[in-house]
Amino acid sequence: SIKGFIFDLDGVVTDTAEYHYQAWKRLADELGIPFTREENEALRGIPRRESLLMLLKGRTYPETTLDELMERKNRYYLEYIRAISPRDLLPGARELLQEIRAAGLKAALGSASKNAREVIERLGIADLFDAIADGYSVTRQKPAPDLFLHAAALLGLPPTECAVVEDATAGVEAALAGGFTVIGIGPHERVGRAHLVLPSLAGVSLSKLLEQLSV
Ligand code: B16
Ligand code: MG
User: Fold this and answer.
1) Within its chain, how far is the Cα of 36 from the centroid?
2) Which of 101, 135, 138, 207 has its CB 3.0 to 4.6 Å from that of 114, i.e. a possible disulfide?
3) Is the pTM of this model over 0.90?
């Protein structure tokens, strides 16, 4: 049975994708590279370095320049996320986390972002997590299962007793590879391989969720 939940951050708990887009767009404009919202969609759950390489579309730069570009993008991103407040929580996220806590179950964060701690603090939900796995936790990123396995280990639970909540294809694949139960948030085209697919966490109660997962 499920004793713990691992939540992805961007796209599940809050929508930082828009801020990532603004920051990448500003960098792309400075480099004279076209970058659209659709292209940004493909960067969901993709770590910073891989995102930059996708944005550069085959253009090559020395390693030191790549580092500078990543730092610059992150400076812009940090500037934009200063505006994040509890109002930016996606509907249902806080309620579900509170229910998990009240039921004596565990919750961890499993985000590819190096800024995950800062974001959950700004959202005012840091104290609802028992463990945090973020962009600093493991070397191999999603779709490798490492980040979620690390989160489960921090919770002291085997993957078979954890459900992962994810909005990105790479994240769903990572959770499946790790042997987790997977709840996909969003369209079937993106998260259809999850065991349970929901449009969002709005109105999702813990009891209903556990009931749906056991079938
Ligand atoms: P950072 P998640 C991911 O967060 C984002 O979806 C992705 O767009 C971003 O590039 C990645 O984190 C790394 O973020 O640059 O802040 O380290 O969906 O895994 O919570
Ligand atoms: Mg995500």
Assistant:
1) 21
2) 135
3) yes
